Structures are given as C-alpha cells and as structure tokens.
Amino acid sequence: MTNVDTRTYDVVVIGAGPVGENVADRTTAAGLSTVIVESELVGGECSYWACEPSKALLRPALLRADAGRVPGLGPAAAGPLDTAAVLAHRDRMAAHWNDDGQVEWLKTAGIDLQRGHGRLDGPRRVAVTTPDGGTIRLLARHAVAVCTGSTAALPDLPGLAALRPWTSREATSAPQPPGRLVIVGAGVVATEMATAWQSLGTEVTLLAHGARLLPQMEPFAGELVADRLREAGTDLRFGVTVTTAARTGGEVGITLSGGGRLTADEILFAIGRAPRTGDIGLETVGLIPGDWLTTDDSLTVTAAPGDWLYAVGDVNRRALLTHQGKLGAEKTMLSCVGAGRGRYWRILPGTCGRWSPSEMPSVGNWLAISRAVRGPGAVAV
Ligand SMILES: Cc1cc2nc3c(=O)[nH]c(=O)nc-3n(C[C@H](O)[C@H](O)[C@H](O)COP(=O)(O)OP(=O)(O)OC[C@H]3O[C@@H](n4cnc5c(N)ncnc54)[C@H](O)[C@@H]3O)c2cc1C
C-alpha cells in the first residue's frame, strides 16, 4: 500500500453492532483511544434486522394472545390486527434503517467511527476499504476486537440465488405480509417469524427437520410452542426437508423429502447462523477465513499468539444473543486494560426469549447443556 492514510489507536473494533459498540464504549470509558469500523449500519443486525424489528412485530401478536386468555376480554381481543399500524411501528423501531441516531451516540461517547469494510492485515493492523474505494490503515497499540457478528446460514440447494429466499433480514423487514410463507427451521427465528406473520394474516407452513421445535431446549418448551402455533393456524410438519425449491413468476414451488409438494409466495430459511469471517483477513494472522473464532474465557482468540486479538459477540459462537455479547464486551475491556483475565461465564447468567404466543423465559443452562458440562447428575428444577 502506498500513500495510505495510517492512524494509530489503542483499540480497533471491527463491526459496530451492539457488541462492537459496547466494546468501544467500555474501552473509551477506560481511557483507551478507540476506533470502530462499520461496513453497513451502526447498530448492527440487532437494531435493524433482528431483536428490534422482530420484537416490534411480535408484541401485538403476544398481547392479543394474552388478552384472549383473560376471562371476559377474549371476544374483544379476537379481531384482526391493524397490519399497516404494526408494520409502521416495526419501521420506527428499526429507525427506518437509518443509523444517524447511533452515529450521534458514538460521537457523544468519544468513539471514532470509520465507515468501510475492515480486514486484518497482520497482527494489530486493520486495513479498511472505504465506501469511495480508498484504503485506510489502522494500527492498534493494544488490541483488535473482531465483532463482525453472524449471518443467516443457507442450505446447499441448487438454484438458490434465483430462488431469492428470505433470511432473517427479509423476515424482519418485509414491507407487506406474504400471502403464503413456508418457513424452514425449528429454532427461535423460525418460531418467532411464524408467530409474527401468522398474526398478520399470512398462511404459514413450518417445516422442521427433526421431531420437535426448539430442539436445544427442554422438550416441554417445544411442545408448548407447537401447541400455540397450531392453535394460531400454522401448518407444522416434522421430519421433513426441502429437496428442491424454485421460483417461477411470483411463486415458489417446493419439493419435500418423501415427495410432497408445496407452493408459496415466499420461503424463509431459518436453519442457523454462520460467522461473518469470510472476508476479514483472518489468513493474514494464520487463521482460517469463514471459521467461527474460538476464544478462551477472556475472549482472546486462542489460535492467535500474543494476546491482542479478541472475538466478541456472535462471532465467537458462545451464545448468539445481544445481552450475552454485551457481557463479553465488559470482559474484553477488562482484559484490554490489564485488569484481569477471569472467566467469562460458567453458566449462562440468564436468557429470555419471546418466541411465540407461549413465551419461554429461562435462567441458566438448558438441561442438555448442563449435563454436558456437569455430568449426568444435573437435574432440571
Ligand atoms: C431474527 C432475530 C431475532 C433476534 N432477537 C434477539 C433478541 O430478542 N434478543 C437477543 O438478545 N438477541 C436476539 N437475536 C440475536 C442478536 O441479533 C445477535 O446476537 C446480535 O445482533 C449480535 O451482535 P454482534 O454485535 O455480535 O453482531 P451483529 O449485530 O451482527 O453486528 C455485526 C456488525 O459488524 C459489521 N461488520 C461485519 N463485518 C464487517 C467488516 N468486515 N467490516 C466492518 N464492519 C463489519 C456488520 O455490518 C454489523 O453491523 C436475534 C437474532 C435474529 C436473527
């Protein structure tokens, strides 16, 4: 690189999602000069295509379901939702996909923002391709924190690009409810989006590969959610996979394992998450592009020698939740300022989901995880 603008900071954060913002906020507050690099919108997936819009879509559906169970209120709450009002509220909660407010917050917190795509360029170095095609080199005295998050995983189906399937992004930002939606998946995103779009009048078919919903959790949780989705009108099918899917005109034709066929207006794949590490220069520090970043409990990337590279939030695959990532941000700051490299967690300190007309709050680990960590003696209470 010649004539490249080079700037030095104590900490360089790649990715201004909720976790990167928190890392930057905490390191700045601890007196470390910090720059944050963002290629899309400051606020990340959570603000625009995940937590915020999904919860805005779900709230009316959940309140209506709750009200329907209150004696005397049921008939009054049974009417259809006002779709335009629900979607307008969702748009407001996603800040109309405009990050001015969050950019302003970065300024007030004293954090420098560098727009562009960040890539590691050797130890403690980040090269940013700016929106106008230029390059800026950022040098980190102490640490680089990779907070690039995750993206929707997609199946290996022929003709996927022409199919134009929905991922969590389209499912949380669609301007109108589709008439018929096929959802492939059985986890949180699949069940939340089934609930939300069903409540706005969409005919939803949910295809689960396994025998139950929410397979990571206690069986009763998935059963309860399945009961509620069926009551709301979702067509739930278990033990089924998509073998082919193709878009013809405005319609999607789907072939199922076992030979069944379905037709829909949209198909949503909610089959898991993949790390956003394919193009962040991991190869320049001896790591493999496209891999999740494995860390120790201080969130230092274990395969990168020298204690300078951190992976925080979804990208380390520890717990793909905003509040867990923010907890990690605090740990990272403490490690950066040399205040200790203690354990990140022994048990999940508390998670809570609002996933269907049956909400599933939880504290601590699910039984299967506890048994894996603590042995077969672990019990559910
Ligand atoms: C539908 C849905 C609903 C959810 N609901 C909840 C919920 O209710 N509660 C909850 O706790 N969690 C929820 N989650 C999970 C939550 O969204 C994630 O855990 C959270 O967004 C992770 O934050 P992050 O900062 O690690 O990554 P992200 O939010 O993905 O942010 C990463 C940022 O890095 C940027 N970036 C990536 N690569 C580069 C690069 N090379 N250079 C510069 N910038 C880059 C991206 O543009 C992005 O802004 C939900 C997820 C989904 C999909």
From TrEMBL:
Record-annotated FAD/NAD(P)-binding domain positions: 9-319
UniProt KW Translocase keyword: no
InterPro entries xrefs: FAD/NAD-bd_sf (IPR036188), FAD/NAD-binding_dom (IPR023753)
Keyword Oxidoreductase set for record: yes
Protein keywords: Oxidoreductase
EC number: 1.8.1.4
Transmembrane intervals: none
Superkingdom as given in the UniProt entry: Bacteria
PANTHER family: MERCURIC REDUCTASE (PTHR43014:SF2)
Protein name (Swiss-Prot/TrEMBL): Dihydrolipoamide dehydrogenase
Organism: Nonomuraea dietziae
